[in-house]
Records
---
Amino acid sequence: MARCSQNLIDSQAVLEDYFLENESLPMEEMAVGAVNPLGKMDCIEDLNLMEQGPGEPCGHQIPEKASRIHEEEDAKEEGEEEEEEKEENELGDPAVLSAIHGAQRGDKGSPRLKAPSGLGMSPVSLHFLCQTMDYLSPISFRSTYPSASSPARHFGPQLPSPDPSLFYSPPASWPPRFSLPSHQTQLHPQHQRILQKQRQEQQSSHKHQSPRVGKLWSQKPDPYAGLMNQREKDWVIKVQMVQLQSENPELDDYYYQEYYQKLERKQADEELFGRRGRLESPKLVTPYIQKTEDYESVVRIEGSLGQVAVSTCFGPRRAIDAVSHGSQEQDSAIYNQKLQVLYRIEKMFLQLLKLEENQKGMLAKSYFYELQRKQLEKIYQELRTGDQDNSEEAANGFLQVLSVRKGKVLVARLLLLLPRDQAVHLVLSITSHLPFLIRRDTADQALHMLFKPMGKCINLLAFSELLQGLQGLMVLQPGSQERPITVVLQNQFGISLLYTLLSHGEQLVSLNCSLTQHSSSDLAAWTDMVVLIAWEISHMSTASLAEPLVVPSNLPSLFCRYVDKQIVQQLEARMDYAPVATDLTYLGKLSCPPTYQSVRAEVEEGKIH
Amino acid sequence: MNYMPGTASLIEDIDKKHLVLLRDGRTLIGYLRSIDQFANLVLHQTVERIHVGKKYGDIPRGIFVVRGENVVLLGEIDLEKESDTPLQQVSIEEILEEQRVEQQTKQEAEKLKVQALKERGLSVPRVDTLDEY
């Protein structure tokens, strides 16, 4: 076995010395040395992997030549070291160690590339090997970066070596200190503290582990550990960090930012509950760079039709915007109109997203409120009127927006941001055109996402406005026998909305017992409304009645008061009081209105599909 | 994780024994010595493990440099649990023979299938990529 390792040492030394010193050696020897590297490797493998005795004896003629070559090179220093290491370490391959030593001392200098043609390898692979060797012979190898820090630790006690800087791993150096210039990595001070803490933890855990792990590994310390030194690891990390740089992390790295904020919130809550020792999780902090280059997303060449796809390094193939900048198409009016609606929705959505982003970012700056208000106003105007001044046309435009799924999403999110009056205005126009919207929604089934924000707005309705909304449902449409309410009752969203309205009305009425609060005509109208609605519900077959999303708990009492027993019975049969409307009663109580954040979060997460 | 919280990195896997599955279906086991930003790997004392049924055989291969894009997955091997396997190790010749037999049976089954399809007037286009195994 010793002989085998001797063979290996020599052939290895030959290879390494060649590349490091680049002396041209006699051709046949080099060919021999180069041609059978794998054979030598096999020998090592047998030794190390199989953990058995000596592998097959290697060829005999090779060691002789190899040893001759070995002596030709600077055999003195390396020979001495190899003797030492051979004694200490039976299984390892000291040749590689010696190569590292030699490289470390920096006396080899940079390898010049010279590829003798007799060698079994092509110049390309030689070059590559030289480059890998470069890693073994870094430019300046200082003791501040002990290369075998973490990996060597993993394998238990270090093998005593003549070069302590290579293999000794002071625990304090792991995890490694960042050698990167400060403008590239900004480690949060908390991050630094965490790293230090972890270092200590690792030390203590390692002390725990080492008796157990050490037992396993004391027979086999890993001499190849640390081939990749700390500098190289830092380099790889640096490259990876560079790739993570962005000037808008909220956009580029949305999910990680959200996750981290959620984590922080959870930790803050835990701290609130009095749990001491708040576990601070580290955050990835990447430097924010200013992208100086500005590129045009859409390139228009004069006289061409349409847009040109320009490929830059930011986007290999820029998608051509879906918006037409050119002249309007005159052919199909309906097609054009549909496109116009979609275009409007897109424009408003972009404005809405910007608004929401601002709101998320800014905490409590007064002048931003002003800015937000203006932006909101703009979106609202866009939604309401488009280009029209006529209110009929405006309503039409609004309804067209609502007919598209994305438009519903837009309105749902916008409703939460709008001031009361404008929100109420929108809600009322929705309720008055409910049958139309229901009919248009059969394909999408997306009206449900409007329910929550509308519910919130309904609770802000004044009594007169509420009546206005309900009356819209009862008005007999010209040219049809039935009231809109029948269609509404058959639709889940419609019936839920109706119940919400009734519940709110009941609340308003019951809260203010004095009749002077509301005009008598209003109350009369309200009573009529309730009776009519009750009648409609009771006369509709249970099968065609839709299952509401939520049944407010104050409805039975409402009906009991205004309607006679017979109808109440029928109502009870139809309305399941089982799903307890915790949401709605909570909302209805008006004691603490739901926070903007929570409702909005729910809208975004739950309802928007 | 220590270096870059919230990310995955191979830095902590250095000098540990790994099992690497390549795109051409080979399974390599070796010590991960070096990486780069493309996840090119340098495996040391690598062994190519061939699995046939409950048997496996190891072919020692030496040092491997694997281009990152050819790696399907890799995972650290727990050295304590490594020997804790129901699989039976056999010699290289035996496993190669087993593999050959398995390939043969597969090919014959495939031929029968193609024949049956042809009789019914259907034809399955040959998949010429290497990713099928």
---
Amino acid sequence: MKAHFGPAQSGAYSLSRLTSKHKATSKRAEKVVLEMQDPATGVKLQPQRLVITTIPHAITGEDIVQICLFYSEARSFGSMLVALGYIYPIQDHKRLVVKPDASLYRFQTPYFWPTQQWPVEDTDYAIYLAKRNIRKKGILELHEQEQYNRLHKWMNHKWDFIVMQAKEQYRAAKERKKPDRVVFDCQERAYWVVHRPPVRTHTGMFPSLQKTFMIFTQQSIMRPRVKSSVSIGALVKYCATYKGHDPFLSKCLPSNPWLTDDVTYWALNMPNVEIPTKMRVERWTFSFGELLSDPRGRDDFRLFLKKEFSGENLAFWEGCEDLKWGTAATMKEKAEQIYKTFLARGAPRWINIDGKTMEITVKGLKHPHRYVLDAAQTHIYMLMKKVSKHVSSDSQLEQNARNRRPSLSPIIIRQQEQEQKAKMAASAPVDITQLCRFTTPVPHLAVYSGITDPPSANASPSLPFLAHTPACPSPISVALDSTSASERRAEASEGESEGNPEARASAGGNVSKSRVALSLRRLLKRGCTPSSMFASLSPKCNSAAGTSSRIQPITPDEPSQAPPRRIGNFFQIKVDIPPECRIYPIESEDEDEENRAISRERLGTKEIICPWESLTPQNGTG
Amino acid sequence: FNLIMGKEECKTMLDALNKVTACYRHLVIALGSTSDSQNLREELKKTRKKAQELAVANRTKLTSLLKDKTISKEDRAEYERLWVLFSSCMELLEVDMKRSLEIAQDFPLKVPTRHLIQTGMTGSTTTVAARAMSVQNMKYEADSNIDTADLRDLQAEITQVSQMMEEMEMKVQVMKVQVAPWAVEAKQEAGAELKSNMSVGNSSVGSREAGFASICAVIGFFVIVIVALVLGYLVVNM
């Protein structure tokens, strides 16, 4: 059985399964081998006659087959014994199979039995090769020579020891009598044929184990590695972010049910509760994944996307999840269903993914499996993630303004939640947020300089950046038209710094429609790659990438240079910036870097010194 | 002078440890097979004890040498090389001791129906043990229940060895001796084992001494030839 993980994981998984199976078979094999030693009921032994010497305890292939029939099913058991290394062939030592004729085999000594707990060491192999080198006076077989050279390179620091030990072992072996020496040589050779086979060794069993192991180790080497400073930084960030949300580490309101036996907390946080708690909403701001994994958040997001006529993205994503986690029997139908609904040309809920991904997906659908839609799903996920970042909510800003310490009484929370409910009933439930500290947009840039050529080389080149054409009736143009003085006022006064509730209240009093427009406008003013937005929001308007736009850009195209990367500045940005500064979302994602770079350049002569502008570009992963 | 003596002493002890390790491995390989016997168990026990004595001696010597801060850079490199040799030997010894415990437990001797694996090996290992112990003949004086009684000792010794190895690691760190095993450069190149070494010591670089020995042989040869010619001349002239 092959589990459908990614290749490295599947290698590891099947490896572990095979090794545990291996272990059980080894135990059984050992038992049988022991029983075979019984002079009365065991296998018949005969001497092997060499030129001068005679060596006892040889078995013929026929006898092996016979005795194996006695102990278990058929010849496969005998072949298994040989493949594992409990019995070795004397004559054709490279082919680990049982030939049911007079060819001779011998039992392997317990030291050379395959065991899980004693991994086969390269040092031992190097010593063996050195010994062989001595014995054969420098003439090794091809694969042995290759291995020798390889080990000499990789174990160079130990090479003195290897040579020393090889010489001593060689001399110690000579102390024994001739027949025993011959037997020992055969034993050792057989051991290494099993554990370091020359590539074309014919084994009766378990070729997949070695192959899986090889794939696994090759992929482990290729796996990207992260500096511990980076990963520890990420861990610290995670802990700091989630610390307040852990009911055991900090107070949870109204009370921790485990302590007070009051289940209000659970009731308030039911998966499909109508009004999500503040803490829950805050959690959604941590990452897009949080938003999606919370059913309530996902509902909100779904409604939002519905408003923007791009609900099929989320539906597709959900379909993919369903496929991944569903039963194997239903997989084929599900995949077909998804194809018909989302991917086929002229499908009712066609999603917008780029040509290459579509090609790969369609090809994969010929032989559908659990992860056939992975590429497309990731694509859509990234798209939705971008969308979620650029939409802010007013209710969230209000909450930001207020005191967020957990000592708030439940009454205030209830009040807030009721307000939230009212707002949500009135407006699009846009709870998707980001922590925006600086919320004053520059008023004069209400002229939409945001629609320019997309800096195509940046961010995700795989996403199609299609410019908005005038012919396309987009909801955003509708929003643009409804520029109202009140909006501008609201924008100007909104959230200068924290603790400005009047502005918030007035902002909160806005009409629902303009709020959507407000948020979308803010999106545009940030100079994000608007076409990606458009692409996701207006999937029907897939026109060729052109430079036409309704509104003249203020500044020419941006050079596609990599903006300075700031990793982990999340907590370093201070609040003390001039109010004219623009809204900068505090995310440590790189997609926003380009936006900031663009918007900064648009500010032009404004000469706003934002704290992060003095940072020098960093390169790479630090 | 003291330092040179120390180095030579170290190398000799290391060679001895190496030899004992190699012989011990041969003995363990015979365990559980038809070569197994009371005597083998006793041989294993004696070899083990010898190995441990040598290990302790080596360790003390090497750590005292490495602790010395006044040694030169080349000397330090040499000691680090010896340290790598020593720790590799100990690793091998530890593994073999653990394996011998395992196999000895699986193949007790004093049972009514003992099933030793019929591997084709039937001879005794006494010569190997004698080589390990550096004696001419082995003397056997153990009790008949050595196969079980010894196991407890063996377990204790394994723990001792593991502890010693851990200590070695720690000590090396505590002394702020940066022994980076991978940084040690082997003195022997590939195929070095093919060179016959007339010298006893393996841990020293054999090539110099081998060269010297071969020069001796050549000179000896010529001397003999000259003597033969002279004699022949005399005989002819008689």
